[in-house]
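#struct-help
A.M.: can someone run this one for me? Single chain, 259 residues.
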Amino acid sequence: MSVRAATDGPVRIVTIDRPQVRNAVDGPTAADLEAVCRDADTDPDIGAIVLTGADGTFCAGADLHAVTDPARRNPTDDPRQGPMGPTRWQPQTPVIAAVEGHAVAGGLELALWCDVRIAARSAVFGVFCRRVGVPLIDGGTVRLPRVVGHGRALELILTGRPVDADEALRIGLVTQVVGDGGAVSAAVELGTRLAALPQTTLLTDLASAREAFDRPLVDALEHEHHRGVAAIAAGGLDEGVRRFQAGEGRAGAPLEPTR
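D.P.: on it. Structure tokens below:
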């Protein structure tokens, strides 16, 4: 299983465990990730979920090597199913992202799915899928403006540039920066504090805060899904994926322009 879970007191730690591909998520991993998170959300002894990645990387996004493999590619047929896993689903339990290393492309969208983000000093965020023509389809265009503001989100979405931990803290993308290797322990500490608070009102206020925007989140996610799937169907990612699979654009390097 490419997702593992551990329990620390009232906190369930969910770890994407595919370090050989920088914790990129393929279809089976997406299904495992949602299943593990749902299991944590239904456990009455769990007061917070921490989402992280193995071996010093949060998540590099969707596994582009799985795009051409029907058995492993991320699902895009159902707008109610997130290609990265739980991104179409809203748990009642608070979710905290513990970000070490890169949280980019779909990995950024997973971090945005969480309610709170804690980053290690060397963490890097960004819409890196911009450079290979892959659309945001797991809530990035919906949640990023809500977290950092519309204008700043547009600049990040359009350019795909990297954002380091200091900038992420300054713009409100994360709420705390800790030393490298300390993100999970800081997230568990926060989750433990949240679990000790009166839960009925905490969960009520959390749900209300999540819903406090003009367009219902579910509608906005479906709208984003339909646009993203249309872009994929029109060939919007074929060339970029082919070039990535051939070895271009690794480790954040830009692909040479085709025109």
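A.M.: thanks! Residues 80 and 88 are 6 Å apart (CA to CA).
D.P.: also worth noting: The chain is about 40% helix and 15% strand.
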